Give the backbone structure.
Amino acid sequence: MNRSAGTAFSLGRVWAMLLRYLYILKSSWPRTLELLYWPTLQVMIWGFMSQFFSQNSSYVARAFGVLLGAVMLWDVMFRSQLGLSISFLEEMWSRNLGHLFATPLRAYEWVISLLAMSVIRVMIGIVPAALLAIPLYHYSIFAMGLPLLAFLAVLMAMGWALGLAICGLILRHGMGAESLAWTVIFALSPVSCVYYPASILPHWLQPVAWSLPQTYVFEGMRILLFEHVFRTDYFFAAVGLDIVFMALGIAIFFVFFRNARHRGALMQMGE
Amino acid sequence: MPEPVIAVDNLVKRYGETVAVGGISFAVERGQTAALLGGNGAGKTTTLSILLGLLLPSEGSVRVLGEDVLRHRYRVLPRINFSSPYVDLPHRLTVRQNLSVYARLYGLSRRRERIERLADDLQITPFLDRPAGKLSSGQKTRVALAKALLNEPEVLLLDEPTASLDPDTGDWVRSYLEDYRARTGATLLLASHNMGEVERLCSQVMMMKAGLIVDRGSPHELVGRYGRANLEEVFLHIARTPEFEPEPVL
């Protein structure tokens, strides 16, 4: 028997897991449609609202895309967290962790495949919505240029950090914690300053907002659109915070993964 | 004397104050088929999970194929496999997709050939492209067995391999396992409470009760020792006799 499974890291195993999630995605067109549905709907609602505001508000009139860009970027963070969590939950729903971790698959290879799947899910959801905004509102988020890539990277990393922490909590507390995958991120939205500047928040709440990487992205996006300046100081602050949150997310995931091995949860966990 | 393929020494697993496995030791030689036999909650599945590295023990050591599973499980996992009715395959993936993913996880070359040969052997070719969730119990068991044999394991761990199967399919699975062991020289360890299955397949039986091995021997030896007609009667005797109630290990 020719097998080559003894290496500490294998792209082949990561690809195997990614392939598995792609098979799952392909097997259900309603799930693929769901990926497209919400971002497209959001863009339509906020796009028409922005059009209305642009004719009635000097703030938005100066930069029509500020709300629409915020909607799309917020969705990037939300979808990257949800994309990771949903792929993870697929394993819970199919009671399959016992099979997977009786193979040479390492937990970190699994995590890499979850991240890769999150990127794919975000692209499926966001790119069509962004393209739709071009004919509908003559607005292209791609006009932001290279800073857009920086914003995307920061937001996706924060989405992954949250996703990993949520997956860790589900490993620890079982499927009772499943709803965290859909709810946690919305608790952060008021202090993420997606649609308004951080200065609007009460003074005591502003440090909370500035401790989140996404706040720097949304503030940076507004500055970019209003003043045509990319704030590198904001970008590096966001990257620094991303590193902290990613480290926390990874730590929570792996601590609870090991804890699951102590409790026998890998064999039992599922719906 | 060669080292046993499976060597378990003073294995303990506690969940808080509950003792799931209370300090068991056993060895299984190469090419042997052995069984952990006991009722529900005896500690059979817990022991198999520890052998696979899916569960960490509280105390004790486990060696499989000469490697310490607790320290070097990734040296062992490519060479072993398992099947359990309590762990499922994703329902929406087809049988072929499921097997293909696992073949990749085991780093197999010539995956397509391997899957088609196994499908032929296990008579699952007609439903290779059917979603796993749409199979009958018997078909699922054969697919689970195909998954368990993908890497042609030297050690095969089977948790109730014929649970919920009709007698005909159960007999077919047992015959297949006998043939696999004879053909490859693999070592098989079953967790079961199916006495007929254990009598037919196994040369060594560890009788478990409340997390301890309360007796062991070949089915023939056990039947003779207790003066019973078959292993089922031995099992019932042990299950219902208070002196076999083991002392909890704390």
In short: The two ends of chain A are 36 Å apart (CA to CA). The interface with chain B takes residues 1-8, 10, 12-13, 15-17, 19-20, 23-24, 27-28, 90, 94-106, 258, 261-264, 266-268, 270 of chain A (CB under 8 Å).
